[in-house]
Records
---
Amino acid sequence: MQAFIDQLIQEGAFAGVPREVVYAIAMVLTALIVLSVFVAPLAGVTSWLERRVWARMQSRIGPNRVGPQGVLQWLADGIKNLLKEDLIPAAADAKLFSLAPYVVFMGFLCTFVVIPFGANLIVADLNIGILYILAVTSLVVVGILMAGWASNNKWSLLGGMRSAAQIVSYEIPAGLALLNVVFLAGTMSMQGIIKAQGWAPWDWFLFNNPFIFAAFFLYFTAALAEGNRTPFDIPEAESELVAGYVTEYSGMRFLFFFFAEWGNLYVIGAVATTLFLGGWQVPPLPIFDNNPLLLGIAQFVTFFVKAYMWVFVAMWVRATLPRVRVDQLMALCWKYMVPLSFICLLGTIGFMFMPENLHRVISAATLGFAVAVMVVFLVRVVFQIRNAKPELYLKPHI
Amino acid sequence: MSVASYVKDIADTVKSTFEGMSITFSHLFRKPMTIQYPDKIPVPIQETLPRRYRGILEVDLDICTGCLACERDCPITCITIGIEMNKETKQRQFTHFDIDVCKCMYCGLCSEACPTGAIRHSQEFEGASYNPAGLVRHFAPTQQNLYKPKKGGETEPKLVTKVEIGLKYLDEFATPDGGAAAEES
């Protein structure tokens, strides 16, 4: 992105304008484009899709009235929330209360700076890409604590405190799991990590060795917890805390929290794709040779599909698992996930010291294990369908 | 906590999550249970209700004898019947036969008391109205003669089927046990 602007300046497109002003305008424009063209529709459609997928998994239908199959439901919800009264409780800290949703939203939106949608489609390829993502997502804690405190409500405060404890705890296993990949790739840059992998599954870091395979699931679980997703949504546990830190919010401010939550799902998927699943790598087909545009589209689609698959898995987990208790949540993190992620890290280090010819054998075995797990899973699904003898309905719509 | 139980905990978590996710995934291929009332349904919902369903009361005035048994039996007097003598034809006529659905509590006592089965519960339940007056069902819009049962059974073809329907309703549903005895036999 910067190279592109630099090139324009070199060509004299902005003659007479100070370089910093051009940069500032370019940054604002890029942020606006990313926000309005990609993030907002993505979060909205994700909210609709989640409700549909979740409903189908519970033998319901979900929203299917607004637009064909309800795809415009998110627009209707957005307009409804815009028109609602924006309440600020009399006893609340008005400034912090108004600011909190935007801090949460910013913490999520800033990650889009380093998400590589394609070989050239990235806002800034920072050399500390992964560290940057871990750092800016921590801003969400500040926003949630702010919301919890400023609401001047015991439910909000409890929710905010729980969320802070949860996010701070789960950053450790998430960070350690990501460290495996950083060790293997030898770089923290998102593009560098992708370039260290290949397009084929056996070139992905996910199947590099068994420890990194386990670390992937540790990362995914920890990321779900960081995103306050079910089964780790105790900060907004409806049965205990009404709505946690969003109890006092209404209208668009309320929506901003959920905007961030749904958008964050995609970020989780994008990070998982970049680090473990080969990112935008596409097979070197001959049609891409003289067609950079087609190559770019293919890369974007590959990345998007891979990332969105994990969004689907997050919805699926949400439909499957019940909410854990606070003590269970902390026990899961500190007693199980932190030690396991350290074991994974040591295992990966040990793997890196192994002779080169042993690497291939272990990678092949890991890939074989993953394929076996998929096969067993399909067998179980078929068993469940046969066992229940349901009326089959293979169409995704109704 | 021993190492064995620690490892077992982890294995249990992975196994139960795996199994649970296979169950939820299999639900994606099942037909949803939801009935999309009121529009996206193959047949009107009233036709799918059980026959003993206690919906809004309906009256077949052609076979109503005007005995006022239902009006007397109604615990909340939601039935009001007016009968007067027509001086020209020397026949007794209904001036009105109104049931206030607002008040009706669907107890079914009126349909048990009716000798001909003229008043009975329908499968209709959609009672939405813009004002309470719209919920009063008028069954005698014009002045209509009372029904006189004939000795030896009904002969007029227009009324035969109506009487049969009424008596069938009395036998099968309008009994204190809700027709359970008739169903068993």
---
Amino acid sequence: MNLADQSRPDEGMAAMAAELAREDRVREAIGAVLPHLVGGEDAMALGEEPVVRTRATLLSLADDLLRRGGGTGNAATLHQALANSAALLAHCHGLALETATSERLAAAGLDPVLSPWLEELLGGETGRAALAMRTISAQARFVARQRRMGADVAELPAELMHAALLALADLPGGPGDQGAAALRAAYDEGRTRLSLLAQVVLAGSEFGERVLDPSAAGFALFATALAARSGAPRQEVLLASSTGQEFRLLLLMRAAGASAEATGSALALIHPEGRLPGDWLDISHEAAGALLAGAAA
Amino acid sequence: MSAASGTTLAQARTDGHGHLVAADELLLGLQLRCGGEMPGPIAIPALREAVERAAATRLKLAVPVTANDGAEWVTAWVEIEPGAAADEGCRVDVRQWQTRAVPPEEERVAARRRAVLVRQNAEFSARLDSRQCVIVAEGSAPDLMGLAERMTAEPGKPWTEFVTVEGSAHRQPLHWRLLDGAKVRIAGSDRIWEAALLPTGEASGRDGGFELHLVSAEPFPAAVDGPAVPRGEPARMIGREVAPVLRQPIARIVANAETIRSRLMGPLAEEYSAYAADIAAAGQHLLALIDDLTDLEVVESSDFKTSPDRIDLAEVARQASGILGVKARERGIEIDAPRHGETLAAVAEFRRVLQVLLNLIGNALRYSPDGSQVWIRLEQDGPFARVIVADQGPGLDSDQQARVFEKFERLGRSGDGGSGLGLYISRRLARAMGGELSVESAPGQGARFVLSVPAAGSAAAA
């Protein structure tokens, strides 16, 4: 538009202010993000691999949505729409971090799919054995797909599925409401990996503190259990498990009621660099919860 | 109890308005215990939220639902499938169901917090034995003094005989859990009281007794007795009637700030604890100021008289130094008080002399260097008995000595919590008792404050 002979100057000013504000947001983000990207300390969460994985997962989600929804529409446009949802972006970033951490633990000998705890459930009562089996296959599919940097839209939690379907329905030239409706009807949150993990944690509540032992539960179950016990979102646990976020993991463990020993051994496994003073493990459960709540506020 | 996975343990249906219209026993029971009915709105908050979400997104959800039905925590895994049409309602399948009692730890923490609050706000407290009979009783509110006296006069009787428990005609105490929190009426008080019974010694397994505390939601009504003050009196700083009304809320602010400062109610960041300490200190200062202003009004009124009695000045001095002993030790100052056995008989009002000495010794502690000494000496000089409080502080020049007994005189000091009224009030008190308060000092030599009152048997005492 020609701003020089703008007939409604207010509107022109508003558009200019909005554009300037958008550019300012990018400029402000540069100062905060660039040092981490270029590789100072704490680079893990913003490292090249998680960032690339996040982008790839989102692209794969967009492809999957279009393919299942009817095949028309521009994947790049949908990808942009999905990336505008902070919750979806955070979810994909969390999955990227989960993969990075469990690959790191796999190198140390911890199976990303099958854990001692799941094996125990497999050998137990039929109902729980079936649940364990479904969980193991969902986890195996997840690990294989992540290694190919792929994603399955049917694996999204319900709120994010809802957001993704709204984006699909609004896509210019896309399948519209009809394509979204078919996906909606086929969705069953109870069959998603994250839901299955949560069901296993609930079913195994008599295992007590052992669910907070990553070497017994496996990292995926551990993250779900720690989130459930501490009241934090699972995404928080995944972030706290990435390099340089050791103290937050300690606080989450203590806030979840884990003993100092259990906290110590989980930290030793996930953060082997061990930068923290040993007596920090003795922080009270209440104080840990208060610190976390203060940090969140 | 725990049941797991795969199979459906219970089913339920909701209608298009989110009301529960059909439910198996497991879910129905929880709905009823949470205060709901069927058909009716879902009374289990987490389930209601999940059903609303499923209806809004038209997605089949699988979520854990946690609810507290009063006796236990229930955690259920539920799957919620919205119907094909938007107004059709949802189907609810329960896949897992676990219950656990509310953990004793939570109960104990809650009980401890309540005990702190009750003790702090109680205006009357008594110790009871295991049969709820009174051992000792003490009241701090004017309208409960009578109750404390009646109980103290007849120890060993159940506390319920001294009060009227609303809604109960029992003379014998009921089980303590039934009386805990009961509304109580007391002869001599117009207020309604709540009784709190805290078992003691339970943790040690002994058959302990109880602490009885009485708490009221209403403050003690402002006293309106006493003759109206005639016109022409000195301008009033603060009403004698207003002071107790002011004291109570400030005392509560101080008590609550102390609770926050000491982190009794839970963890707290260091700086907030420090803020609470500031609030408590400021409140204490306000209380002291109210005391001073009330005293000022009293000593300035034309009808002010003391009630002289035969007292032992040595004993008053020992009491005053005992009261300020902790403050002195904090500063490493030694108070050299009259020895036991030493006596000096005088005719004066005990609590007024004590008030003057507390003021003099308090000043000496405030303005003396750490690790110094404060001496309290007694002497009889003809018709007068004297108490001398001497310190090793900076001392006063003659100009300061002339001004130090004036009203609101601070000698240029500020910010140390003083009101500039203490010495003025003290001198008025000394003179009202037929005595005098004076100072001898030189800069760098410390100060000697001399309180003279009539000696026993002297003409001045007559």
